[in-house]
Design a protein that fits this description.
Layout lengths: L2 H14 L9 H16 L13 E3 L13 E7 L1 H4 L10 H13 L3 E5 L10 H9 L8 E5 L2 H5 L4 H17 L3 E5 L14 H20 L5 E3 L7 H5 L1 H4 L9 H18 L16 E4 H9 L5 E4 L4 E5 L8 H4 L6 E2 L3 E2 L5
Parallel strand pairs: 2-3, 2-4, 4-5, 5-6
Antiparallel strand pairs: 1-3, 6-8, 7-9, 8-9, 10-11
Helix pairs in contact: 1-7, 1-8, 1-12, 2-8, 4-11, 5-7, 7-8, 8-12
């Protein structure tokens, strides 16, 4: 069965309340083996909580009191969204993306990160409620990175997609743009060997494609996390992964953020490149399921809705953050309202 057809079946099962659908056959055995493998390695155990990166970025572009005011950005998801494994707030993906967005938009950005280490998609409803319940306005843009724990803890793929689409729908109805970093390729985790590596890759790519099929029609954009976004991770695993060989290092998070940043900026209309297709980069307009399938196997690929059942497959250029922006420390809220600018 093609990946595009599988993605459609998973997404359809999610939409209509279907069960597991028996999608992966022998890969189901791989999931059991994967669970044992991950349990033995106790991934993430002993790592300190991720540093808090909430606050104001890009204060040089104006304070909260100036019109039109800062952009509001939210991070949701699992340990990758939270930045588990790094020691400084500025090294987390949320801080890197907020700094980059402020630099590109030339406008301050207020970051709120509600991601939780170990979270599966069934925690997204709680995370969305943290953002939307209360008097604070909804985020202008929300970044969700989720899926790895769904695979390793054997959540049915249809349930995983259903929970994600529900969270995206709530954010979109509240007026937030949404970028989803799809399930990473778990076949790249170092101590995972064949045939487990192949099985883990197959299931995680199935979920990644199905996530795209589920959320793109809602107006979200997806970016393929793939093998954690690029050949750099495959070529330099010792540098790109942290001490547990599972979560990214500071350099790994920076590499991933550079791939997500163009899509984050584009969804707010501030990226200098348009959504016009560039055939020289093999960009195309495809049915959503085919675009989702192609993106799942090609890290750093963006999928965004076009019209009807069609979607744009984009390969936006990576651009490194300015050194001075990447190095900026976040500002932290003191009390309920006070936010101070980050030191430069």
């Amino acid at each position: 069965m093609s990946r595009a057809r599988t993605a459609r079946r998973i997404a359809a099962g999610a939409a209509y309340g279907g069960g597991g659908l028996g999608l992966v056959g022998v890969a189901a055995v791989g999931l059991v083996l994967a669970e044992v493998q991950f349990a033995k390695r106790t991934v993430g155990t002993g790592l300190p909580d991720p540093p808090r990166a909430d606050g104001l970025y890009g204060s040089e572009f104006g304070g909260p009191e100036l019109s039109p005011g800062p952009l509001r950005m939210a991070m949701l998801g699992d340990s990758t969204a939270a930045g588990l494994g790094v020691h400084r707030a500025r090294q987390t993906p949320g801080a890197l993306l907020a700094s980059g967005l402020a630099s590109v938009a030339e406008r301050p950005v207020i970051l709120r990160n509600v991601a939780l280490s170990g979270a599966r998609s069934d925690d997204l409803d709680r995370q969305v409620s943290l953002l939307l319940d209360g008097d604070a306005p909804a985020p202008d843009v929300s970044v969700i990175i989720i899926g790895a724990n769904d695979v390793t803890r054997r959540m049915p793929l249809t349930q995983s997609v259903r929970l994600l689409t529900s969270a995206v729908r709530r954010l979109r109805l509240a007026g937030s743009e949404v970028v989803v970093g799809t399930c990473p390729d778990l076949g790249t985790i170092e101590p995972v060997y064949q045939p487990l590596r192949w099985m883990a890759r197959r299931v995680s790519r199935q979920l990644a494609a199905a996530q795209t099929v589920g959320v793109v029609p809602l107006g979200a954009r997806t970016i393929s996390m793939g093998d954690m976004l690029g050949p750099e991770f495959a070529a330099n695993p010792r540098e790109m992964f942290g001490p547990d060989s599972y979560h990214p290092s500071a350099e790994g998070y920076a590499t991933a953020a550079m791939a997500v940043l163009p899509t984050l900026c584009a969804t707010l209309g501030v990226w200098p490149e348009s959504d016009r297709l560039d055939v020289s980069r093999n960009e195309d307009m495809l049915p959503v399921a085919k675009a989702a399938s192609a993106a799942a196997g090609e890290p750093g690929t963006e999928v965004t809705a076009a019209r009807g059942p069609w979607a744009l497959l984009k390969h936006r250029r990576r651009r490194r953050l300015p050194t001075e922006v990447a190095a900026a420390e976040p500002a932290h809220a003191s009390g309920a309202t006070g936010i101070t600018p980050p030191p430069r």
